[in-house]
Amino acid sequence: MGSTRHDLRAEVTRSVTANGISLCCATYGDPADPPLLMIMGIGTQLDGWDVSFRDDLVDSGFFVIRFDNRDVGLSQRLEGVPDLTAIRDGDLRTLPYTLDDMAADSVGLLDALGIDRAHILGASMGGMVAQLVAIHWPERMLSLCSIMSSTGDPSVGQADPAIMELMRRPAPATRAGVVEAAVERSRALAGSGFPFDEEAARTRAAAAYDRAHDPAGRLRQQAAAIASADRTPALRGLRVPTVAVHGSDDRLVDVSGGQATADAVPGAWLEVVDGMGHGIVPEAWPQIIAAVRRNAARATALPGDVR
Fold it and tell me: Where does the record place the AB hydrolase-1 domain (predicted)?
C-alpha cells in the first residue's frame, strides 16, 4: 500500500471493561475512519494479527481494533476445567462459557470504545464469533469477513484427522517445548502454495509465550467452540454484507466450511486463496485485503438489498 496513514498515530493499548470482564485491546489508525474489529481464533493473542497486515488495513482506510479474547493474552482469565469428551457428546455441565458469550464480549468492546457499528473480521474461531455478532447484533455490523472458519454444521469444515491428533497433544512443560510445538503446528497447517517461514513462526511463538502463556484458557475457548450449535439457519436470515475467505489447502478447517458460510448468507461470496493453509500468510494479504475492502464497500446498500 502506497500511503503512510499508519504513521499518523501510535497504536493505543488499553484495558477496558466489556460484558462485565476486562479485555486488553489495541487501536490503530485514524478514529475518523470506519472501524474494523478483528477477532482472533483459539488461544491466539491480538499479536497473532501481524502488525504489517494491520498497517495495510489502516492504509486501506480502516481504524483497526485488535484485542485479546477472554482467557488469552492480557485479558481476564475465567475459571473451570472443561471435559471436552463430555462436551462433544452433548453434556455441557463443565462448559465455562459459550461462543455467544464471546460475541457479547466483542459488542461490549465496541460499547467501551464508543463505536456504534463496525466492520468485523474474524479468523477461525474468531470467524464463528463474528458470525454470532452478525446473528444477534446485526445493527452493530457494517460488514462481516469470516476467514478460514465454518458454520458449525458438522458435515462441513472438518479437520484432517492427522491434524486433529497434532492439535490435541498436551502443551509441553517448558518454554522451549511450547515454542517448538507451536512451530510444528504452524508447519503442519501451512499450505502448499507458499514457503513456510520457520524463523518467523518461531519468533511469533516465543513472543506469544513471553507475553502470556495459559494452556487452561485455550482449553476453555476450545470447549466453547466444540459446544457451538449449527449457525446455518440463522446465517440464512442475515442481511449483512459478507465474504468468506478460505485457503484451498486448509487442513484444520476444510474449505467446505467457507463455502457453506458463503452459501448460507444471502449475497455473500467465497474468496479462495489458492495454496493457503490455516494461516494468513503475507503473500495472501493483498487478495484478502482487496476482498475486505470490496465487501466493506457494500455496507452502504439498503437493508434487504445486499449486493
Answer: 34-281
Question: For residue 303, is pLDDT > 60?
Answer: no
Q: What are residue 145's phi and psi, to 5 degrees?
A: -120, 115
Cell 446455518: give the residue: 232
3-state secondary structure of 110: helix
Verdict on whether the full-model pTM lies above 0.85: yes
Paired with 243 in beta bridges are 145, 269
- DSSP one-letter code for 241: -
Strand intervals (E) in 175-253: 242-247
Beta-carbon contacts of residue 219 (< 8 Å; ≥ 6 apart):
81, 82, 84
Kindly list the structural domains of the chain, giving each domain's residue range(s) and its CATH number in brackets, ordered by start: 5-300 (3.40.50.1820)
Radius of gyration of the chain (CA): 18
Dist. CA 29–CA 10, nearest whole Å:
8
Nearest to residue 204, comparing CAs of 40, 71, 32? 40
| Cα–Cα distance for residue pair 294/275, rounded to 1 Å | 22
